[in-house]
Specification:
The protein is built from two helices and 19 strands. By secondary structure, it is an alpha/beta fold. Strands 2-5-8-13-16-18-19 form a seven-stranded mixed beta sheet. It holds the Pfam family Hexapep. Keywords: Acyltransferase, Repeat, Transferase. GO terms for molecular function: O-acyltransferase activity. InterPro entries: Hexapep, Hexapep_transf_CS, Hexapeptide_acetyltransf, Trimer_LpxA-like_sf.
Length: 177
């Protein structure tokens, strides 16, 4: 019975709540019903989907733009002042390709403060993205990213480093997103 209720909460979250054009209602549901930890002044825009009823935290002043896919079978931890652009996919579980039994693996994803992830980037399971890093649009991140690195490509490779003097605060909400 517990599993049925959990699956229903997830279905309702992804098919109904995600489409409501109100941050207040969505955040209430994510915090109170899904039990996600979401910091002050953070936003999760419309049409984002989750894969589990737990294992998700979002720091304060962070934004997840629309149509992102958050596969939180294992823990996804996103820090403060993080910008996740549209249609980003963050995966925290996969299968062992060498296992004869197709064994599942849960590998947490950690995204530190001041990270910017460009549109349609894919973050694979087990990745740690360091403070202030930038992930270019369309990049596929297969390994840890050092702090303040700018990476891009498939697979993502170092392009350069960005300034370490980051002092901005993200506070981005649209009325009907």
């Amino acid at each position: 019975m517990r599993r049925i209720l959990s699956e229903f909460r997830l279905y309702f979250c992804n098919r109904w709540i995600a489409g409501i054009p109100s941050h207040t209602i969505r955040l209430f549901y994510y915090r109170r019903v899904m039990k996600y930890s979401i910091g002050e002044n953070s936003a999760i825009f419309m049409d984002c989907t989750f894969d589990c009823t737990r294992h998700f935290s979002l720091g304060k002043n962070s934004v997840i733009n629309g149509k992102c896919c958050l596969d939180n079978k294992s823990r996804i931890t996103i820090g403060e002042n993080v910008s996740v652009s549209q249609e980003v996919m963050i995966l925290s579980a996969d299968h062992d390709p060498d296992s004869p039994n197709f064994t599942a693996r849960d590998l947490p994803v950690i995204i530190d403060d001041y990270v910017w992830i460009g549109s349609r980037a894919i973050i694979l399971p087990g990745v740690h993205i360091g403070k202030g890093a930038v992930i270019a649009a369309g990049a596929v991140v297969t390994a840890d990213v050092p702090p303040f690195a700018v990476v891009g490509g498939v697979p993502a490779k170092l392009i350069r480093h960005r300034s370490t003097d980051l002092q901005y605060e993200i506070n981005y909400r649209r009325l009907f997103q």
